[in-house]
Amino acid sequence: MQLRDIDLNLLVIFNQLMIDKRVSAAAETLGITQPAVSNALKRLRVLLKDELFLRTSRGMEPTPFAQQLAEPVNYALGTIHSALNQQTSFDPATSTRTFTLAVTDIGDIYFLPVLMEEVMRTAPQLCISTVRNTAVSLKENLEVGKVDLAIGLLPQLQGGFFQRHLFKHRYVCMFRREHPAASQPMTLDLFQSLEHVVVISAGTGHGEVDT
DNA sequence: CAAAGGGGAAACGAGCTGCT
DNA sequence: AGCAGCTCGTTTCCCCTTTG
């Protein structure tokens, strides 16, 4: 397929559908009507010879081909967006720009000191501002550029954003020295039989471990 | 100026949910 | 189990804009 054969706006709609998983929601986000998105999807289905999205009780589920397409399309649209909106080139050594990071408490404690050390060395005039990534508006803030980067377990950002796996994280159990569990190996059954405290905090994944 | 294409409105249909 | 109501995607038709 040649690029001239495809309306790039169809890829914008495809990208939004990957995010919203609903035609009407994508239409609202893009500022067009739901039939318009439906028609665009129809044209895209014919062009790409794939259903792309299947209607299910959970919304419009992307086909394997659509999932395969999602990342390169998102990357390409991001590149085009950056190219059209760049005003000046970025020079870390002289830039006085403020970057806003959405992080968890562990982000503040662990990442910031490491980051600030590097920033002091390579971009001394840069300003780093942080916000908690527990905010329900994180997705919107990222989309409009109020937040530049978010670190954490953020399933609400699965589609439409650049993502990178940073590290693997394991948990440990803590209990008093005299606790009955101290005399035997910790197993899943033993763990489940004991009372324990889990600090549920959005963006940390602690609740996922308990589940 | 005619043809083509895209968007909006209305109608329709499928699937889900709650109630009896 | 069956029905009604609701939500949401699709289809059809019409209008407007663009293009050659």
TrEMBL record:
Keywords: DNA-binding, Transcription, Transcription regulation. Residues 6-63 form the HTH lysR-type domain. It holds the Pfam family LysR_substrate. It comes from the Bacteria. The keyword Transcription applies. GO terms for molecular function: DNA binding; DNA-binding transcription factor activity. Belongs to the LysR transcriptional regulatory family. PANTHER family: HTH-TYPE TRANSCRIPTIONAL REGULATOR LEUO-RELATED, TRANSCRIPTIONAL REGULATORY PROTEIN. This is LysR substrate binding domain-containing protein. The lineage of its organism: Bacteria, Pseudomonadati, Pseudomonadota, Gammaproteobacteria, Pseudomonadales.
